[in-house]
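Email to the structure team, subject: Carboxyltransferase domain-containing protein model.

Hi all, the expression group asked for a predicted structure before they design truncation constructs. Nothing fancy, just the tokens so they can compare against earlier work. One-line instruction: predict Carboxyltransferase domain-containing protein, return tokens.
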Amino acid sequence: MERQVDVRRLGERAVRVRVDPTVVEALRARLVAESLPGQRELIPGGASVTVVFDGPRSAADGARALRAMSVPEAVGSDGRLVEIGVVYDGEDLREVAQQLGTDEAGVVRIHTERDWRVGFLGFAPGFAYLRSVEPWPTVARRSVPRVRVPAGTVAVAAEYSAVYPRVSPGGWQLIGRTDAELWSLDRDPAALLVPGTRVRFVAVRERVLAPVPAGPPVELPRSGRGIVVRNPGLQSLVEDLGRPGLSALGVTRSGAADRGALRQANRLVGNPAGAAGIENAGGGVELVAAGNQVLAVTGADADLTIETPQGRWRTVERGEPFALDDGDRLEIGPTVAGMRLVIAVRGGIATPEVLGSRSTDTLSRLGPPALAAGDVVPVGAPSGVVGAPEVLPAVPAGSDPTVLDVVPGPDVDLFPDGAWRQLLDTVWSVTPNSDRVGLRLTGPPIDRAAGEVQSQALVPGAVQVPPSGEPVVFGVDHPTTGGYPVIAVVAEHHLDRLAQVPLGAEVRLR
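Reply from the structure team: attached below.
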């Protein structure tokens, strides 16, 4: 008998296919073997497979093809067994015990006396969603997600258990911690737990510490060309156009938050569009040239001043290439409009690649660490021709609400009548907890239907509503999957504008 599927758009380039949880892997395998025109990525979820296409037209054609596709039968798997030692002292252990109608020892007993199996990877690199082979009671997620969950934390939510491989935000209930290394680029595969792996949790008494992976070294190349960081400001990161195609491993694309600003800055200094540059939040940067350089600054608005070693000063303009001779110091003032500056150097930033990209992924801790005072950032050999000055796109000034166009999300019908109108009519404020992972908005809470959704794929611009009713608008370092309903998605033509909304600013969704 043919199984029914529910096919919905997730933004302009992605299509979510909701199916019975038992056939997720079979559908994913079918789409790997028989890929659709324009198909770029497959992201499994708890009861869905999301297909990411190369453009809106391919997505529309793909949605029609998926609606006509018959879903294959479920396939079984029996992978290797991995034992994970856990110290059960999580801060939500008592809350979980109350939900399950037992005590804390009962939670440990229930969690350890069953076998778990990896259903899929998502959220972050190495984050495996584990389903219990035996029936497991449903555990509600937190009403307000935590901003920071430590690496090695063992958690439960809905019918799943998991281990957080890296420090990250999260809305699951925390019951313990482990020193098992869930993700390592020195291992093949990098994830300890892959689909089909069987997992057994074992209670241990001794204290365990999750390992903290070291970032790749940054060295000045033999040419002696580089940029010395005198002051990184609030946050300065190396970013290119990211690492697409790895969402099924829990690795999001990441890359420059304002992709248009990076492309424009690279064009000005003669680099390829995807060359790595420096992305800074808020200004306040000081950089010194090691060797003669050509730079350009795009994105947010700030004053640019150059001081020579002899103490002479001059100003330069955003949107124009300028020379920074050996020993010259570039000082970028605080941003007065917008949020993120992009600094391109002719030849491109030449830090080591990780999974094919030089980008810093702040959620997954992939790529080089945030730049610090005293760092020497290597610069590659120049190849292109320096461009002419360009007009920069307008960035949010913060005096009036920033308008972001949105399209309805795949879960809009899960919300009560009036919720969509409330989302659009409210003037939302951006909280200080916002970052490259997402903008957290505050305002009158949106009414939500009771219950939760299965973990499912996310895309940049997805507007998720947790039980608190206050939306989160995901950015470029978003988790690859999430378990709260998506009411809307920011239109592609406003994703760069989303990256430029300052903290504390007001936002209207249109």
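The radius of gyration is 24 Å. Residues 124 and 364 are 6 Å apart (CA to CA). Ping us if the truncation boundaries need rechecking.
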